[in-house]
Amino acid sequence: xxxxxxxxxxxxxxxxxxxxxxxxxxxxxxxxxxxxxxxxxxxxxxxxxxxxxxxxxxxxxxxxxxxxxxxxxxxxxxxxxxxxxxxxxxxxxxxxxxxxxxxxxxxxxxxxxxxxxxxxxxxxxxxxxxxxxxxxxxxxxx
Length: 142
Fold this sequence. Notes:
The chain has 142 residues and is α+β, with helices and mostly antiparallel strands. 18% of the residues lie in helices and 39% in strands.
């Protein structure tokens, strides 16, 4: 199986409602509040050290069966700038993708220094749903 390094679009950042332990690196997030500053259609977005996917993507991943991640609820809001720049933005419901797999073995994994690694079948799924602003390149763990 082939694997890929993906840099999802950074559509926002951590909000005031986020709870995390910054005494470790990467910080351990126990509650996620994601503030969208601008969204242009990607079904996976990020802000260090978290990833979110649309509910549609979650359902598609669950249907195909995957390894290396779980889902959790996240509070997702839009910034004032986003509301001004993209009035009427119909934001899909996002869920927190908590990656816990091994890079190059599971469908989702994290490689040092903090790269999201996905399997080819997950990449195919994400591309079919829309990741126009993500950067993807082959991953070789050797």
